[in-house]
Design a protein that fits this description.
Largest sheet: 3 strands, antiparallel
Order of helices and strands: EEEEHEEE
Distance between the termini: 31 Å
Radius of gyration: 21 Å
Number of domains: 1
Strand order of the largest sheet: 5-6-7
Helix content: under 10%
Length: 123
């Protein structure tokens, strides 16, 4: 079935769908459910992570780095994964990309990408 809306309006959530093994009955032009083992191949995922947009006010991670550990301006900002882009397909196999942001490690808030070292940006 189709993917349900993301469980969260911001940040990373989960979306679910119903996955059934079905067959089209040609004589009646109707669909019948079958046991899962009647379908070939791997059963598609019934849930997947989803991402709509960043949450306001930072990422809400617990704990902060100690101030004395942050000595250089270059160490104050670092790349961090925040979530995923929308899946490229609504049904079947698709592609989802990771969302990487530049983060101020003291405030845990998103910062301008120019403040993070581009050579250290994860894929």
């Amino acid at each position: 079935g189709p993917w349900q809306p993301c469980s969260r309006t911001c940040g990373v959530g989960m979306q679910r769908r119903t996955v059934k093994c079905q067959v089209m009955l040609s004589f009646s032009q109707s669909v019948a459910d079958l046991p899962d083992d009647e379908c070939d191949g791997e059963k598609p995922a019934a849930s997947q992570p989803c991402y709509n947009k960043p949450c306001p006010g930072g990422l809400g991670h617990a704990g902060q780095e100690k101030e004395e550990e942050i000595t250089h301006a270059g160490e104050l900002y670092d790349w961090e994964y925040e979530g995923f882009t929308e899946c490229s397909e609504s049904c079947g196999g698709g592609v989802q990309g990771a969302v990487v942001i530049c983060l101020n490690k003291q405030t845990r808030k998103a910062a301008d990408q120019s403040l993070c070292e581009s050579s250290r940006r994860p894929p």
